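Quick one:
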Amino acid sequence: MTDILVPTSLVAQPGRFGGVTSGDCLRGAPVVKDGRLIALDTPRGDTACMVIPKLVEPHCHLDKCHTISRLGQVGGDLHHALASQRTDKVHWNEDDIRQRATQGLTEAHQNGCTLIRSHVDWGDDPAPSLSWSVLVELAEDHPSLQLAALTSIEQWTNPDFGKTVGKVLAFTDGVLGAFVHGHENAREGLEALFTTATQHGLMLDFHVDEGLGSLNGLEMIADVALETMFDRPILCGHCVSLMDRPSHEVKRISDKLARAGITVCALPITNLYLQGRADGTPDRRGITRLRELREAGVSIIAGSDNVADAFCPLGAHDPRAALALACVAAHLDPPFGDWLPAITTDAARALGAATVTVDDTELTDMLTCDVTHTADLLSGRVPLRPAIETLM
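Output:
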């Protein structure tokens, strides 16, 4: 059997796992017992492949995906995208939603994902939307699929709304989510939302500050989390407005996020496409301040977000591609193995799931790739394969 390379960042106990250091990886001959990779033996010098845990897709929209073919030539900013997607909902019947969501799930699985979280538009009423009902049924056949209700934070100022949504999410094992974008009553809505999440033991997932300029929902979320001592996972996606904050404000907000244990999810594909759409080529990047957040101790992950819909006509359900683009857009420095937890272990933890590292792990939970450098792994040029096909 050939040697394997394992990114050191994806090994729980590197000192005990064996092998020798090779850049940002450990290299050695795999020791497999009872279908588990238990150690690395002395390298043999043979051609190596890389072994990683299966990927995590922490943020996508299975209810919206693959609608671009009937939307025409959609362009514009976030508000144009919202309007265009709203017009498409005349086509959203059970069969349409199920077919497109299944296509998205299939793509994610083919790209190495196991755990997937999809946001689902809730709609204007307290009762769950058709999309929620269809995807809950789909999740019965896909136990690794998490669903997050995408509501507006203003809806949470209505006590009846929060009461109904909380009960539905508790019953369907859902995640409580909200869109926070400069709303006038955001603080009131957040307080009600955190109260409901605490009552029902729900995780939280926000679309927050999805735009450049003077938005401050992220700091508000951190403040409420600290004040309430909320102890369930909180994930904040987008956070693009941090790009327009001066460094001292970024530091202040980052420190709060770290103390609150909030994870930030970068969504570069959609945000680079939508944000900064003024005249001509944009001169501000539609991505959050990943390097500064990480330096402050904030956990950073990356997701695919929108795929072939009004918000992004391109994209793919592929966290590897999302992280690669984040590396380019945010100037994330090598070694790139240090960033792989953003689509594996850290992403799983942010979704409240058990983290899967490479050491002493079943081969069925891992992937291999015929590369010898983590930059080649992220490039996407070489496909991922189930580890059990390679190492058994």
